[in-house]
């Protein structure tokens, strides 16, 4: 396949990479060891930048700065509206630089340039605005105690927060964690994924320009087992918020438990079902199912990678799917015709291809795709497997690529049971016109997000997160703001009270 689609003009928007150091206490600095690591352009496998590599000592410095900013700095002490104003300015700066940021994510994470510029970056600016608007509405409750006492609760910023984020949505993952923590008055150390640190460093620069005080937002690039582990086990970090694999989530929780018992929130893997009932409009259902697994080349924790179709429309669904899958063109992320860019790294590319081979070996049938696309870069064709059995690895494991496992079912009870047959519980899709079916299935699926006749529909006020081994705690919405606040109860006696 011609994965470049003849495009020649990507140089027009290729960004200059300005920020490659660590960001500690408001300054870009080299790592103490002087070490760097390379970021790779997934469009061609070439080195795009050399980035400072932080390790434990650098995390220590960042935590010191964050602790000082928390204990003595203005950020937790200023009014919510003052924090909100700075966050609004930060949001405006993001909007002004949307094109440059989108280009960084295209050459660093293989993100579709146009979509990132037009949709993801403006939406993260709005995430900042959502929480900026909440910053002056943080308040506790008055407690009418059953004795002659008066009580109230204070909501205090949690303290120094560590955010460990993945590579699949460098912008969204950054702000879904940083924005509520900023609004709450926390200070923080962020470790972007080692694959995709470039846009995070740009955000640090913009935060400073917007007036976020030094030490409030620190960025440590580096690897998981070194910089990431140092955050998880740090004695002076009060909370860790993590998004990534279930395997790493387990390590983070363990490190937190073994150090200072810091609470963690974990947003982990998924193997989300999409259940299509006989009364569905087949065309629309196929579009929904393809979006669910192909969006962001399947590199999305909420991907709808198990598709259950009721027997009455199964054959028609398969035929329509085979046709429509061709519309999901894999190609250069700067080409507006591309709907899937390259997988983020060689490792992920090889991992997805290995799962495709495993699916074939397990006896599933390849309906579409089933192989890499092009002869350079990490491009994969959207792949649909039919004849999938529930216990096959391709029906149980999170693949994190554009690979759909298609299965047939007879009754609603069977669909519910099989959809819940997963260690994960992040999201689910239901396609039906029958309100009773939609309501019954919504309440029966054990997952943090249910989409009825849509998929991946989000907004800043929609909390999401896991049931079961998809983790716990919620990102987005007001639930996420409360994650970064402590509840303190204050009690005082009332003398001569008539009550
Ligand atoms: P992968 O890159 O294999 O998909 P994850 O998605 O779980 O792994 O990585 C998400 C984030 O977790 C990244 O920022 C990564 O550097 C970090 N990480 C990986 N291993 C650890 C660890 N042992 N402790 C803390 N963070 C880690």
Q: What do you see in this structure?
A:
Belongs to the aldehyde dehydrogenase family. The protein has 499 residues and is α/β, with parallel strands linked by helices. It contains 15 helices and 22 strands. Strands 14-15-16-13-12-18-19 form a seven-stranded mixed β-sheet, with helices on both faces. Strand 10, helix 8 and strand 11 form a beta-alpha-beta unit. Helix 5 crosses helix 15. The protein binds adenosine-5'-diphosphate. The site of adenosine-5'-diphosphate (ADP) has 17 residues, from helix 7 and helix 8.
Question: What portion of the residues fall into strands of 2 or more residues?
Answer: 15-25%
Uncertain runs:
1-11
Structural class: alpha/beta
The oligomeric state is: single chain
Largest sheet: 7 strands, mixed
The count of β-strands is 22
Q: What is the helix tally?
A: 15
Anisotropy-based shape: globular
Radius of gyration equals 24 Å
Subunit structure: Homotetramer.
EC number: 1.2.1.3
Subcellular location: Mitochondrion matrix
Catalytic activity: an aldehyde + NAD(+) + H2O = a carboxylate + NADH + 2 H(+); octanal + NADP(+) + H2O = octanoate + NADPH + 2 H(+)
């Amino acid at each position: 396949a011609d994965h470049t689609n003849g495009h020649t003009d990507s140089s027009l928007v290729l960004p200059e990479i300005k920020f490659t150091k660590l960001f500690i206490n408001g300054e870009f600095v080299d790592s103490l060891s002087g070490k760097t690591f390379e970021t790779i352009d997934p469009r061609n496998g070439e080195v795009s930048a050399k980035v400072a590599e932080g390790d434990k000592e650098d995390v220590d410095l960042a935590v010191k700065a964050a602790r000082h900013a928390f204990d003595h700095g203005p950020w937790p002490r200023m009014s919510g509206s003052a924090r909100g104003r700075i966050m609004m300015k930060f949001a405006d700066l993001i909007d002004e630089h949307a094109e440059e940021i989108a280009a960084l994510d295209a050459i660093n994470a293989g993100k579709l340039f146009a979509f990132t510029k037009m949709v993801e970056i403006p939406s993260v600016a709005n995430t900042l605005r959502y929480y900026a608007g909440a910053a002056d509405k943080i308040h506790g409750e008055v407690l009418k105690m059953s004795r002659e006492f008066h009580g109230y609760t204070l909501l205090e910023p949690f303290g120094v927060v560590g955010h460990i984020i993945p590579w699949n949505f460098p912008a969204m993952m950054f702000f879904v964690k940083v924005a509520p923590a900023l609004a709450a008055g926390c200070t923080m150390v962020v470790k972007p994924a080692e694959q995709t640190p470039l846009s995070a460093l740009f955000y640090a620069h913009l935060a400073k320009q917007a007036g976020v005080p030094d030490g409030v937002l620190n960025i440590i690039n580096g690897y998981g087992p070194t910089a990431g582990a140092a955050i998880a086990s740090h004695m002076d970090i009060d909370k860790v918020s993590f998004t990534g694999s279930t395997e790493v989530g387990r390590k983070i929780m363990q490190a937190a438990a073994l150090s200072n018992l810091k609470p963690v929130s974990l947003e982990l893997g998924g193997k989300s079902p999409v259940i299509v009932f006989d009364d569905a409009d087949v065309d629309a259902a196929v579009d929904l199912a393809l979006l669910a697994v192909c969006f962001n080349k399947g590199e999305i924790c909420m991907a709808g990678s198990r598709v259950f179709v009721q027997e009455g429309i199964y054959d028609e669904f398969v035929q329509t799917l085979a046709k429509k899958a061709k519309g999901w063109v894999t190609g250069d992320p700067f080409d507006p015709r591309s709907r899937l860019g390259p997988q983020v790294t060689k490792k992920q590319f090889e991992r997805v291809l290995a799962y495709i081979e495993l699916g074939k070996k397990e006896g599933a049938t390849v309906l579409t795709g089933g192989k890499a696309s092009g002869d350079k870069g990490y491009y994969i064709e959207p792949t649909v497997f039919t004849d999938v059995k529930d216990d096959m690895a391709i029906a149980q494991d999170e693949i994190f690529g554009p690979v759909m496992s298609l299965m047939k079912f007879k009754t609603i009870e069977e669909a519910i049971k099989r959809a819940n047959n997963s260690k994960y519980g992040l999201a689910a899709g239901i396609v039906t016109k029958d309100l009773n079916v939609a309501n019954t299935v919504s309440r029966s699926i054990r997952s943090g997000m249910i989409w009825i006749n849509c998929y991946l529909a989000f907004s800043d006020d929609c909390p999401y997160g896991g049931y079961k081994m998809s983790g716990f705690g919620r990102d987005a919405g007001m639930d996420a703001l409360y994650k970064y606040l402590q509840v303190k109860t204050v009690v005082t006696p009332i003398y001569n009270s008539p009550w």
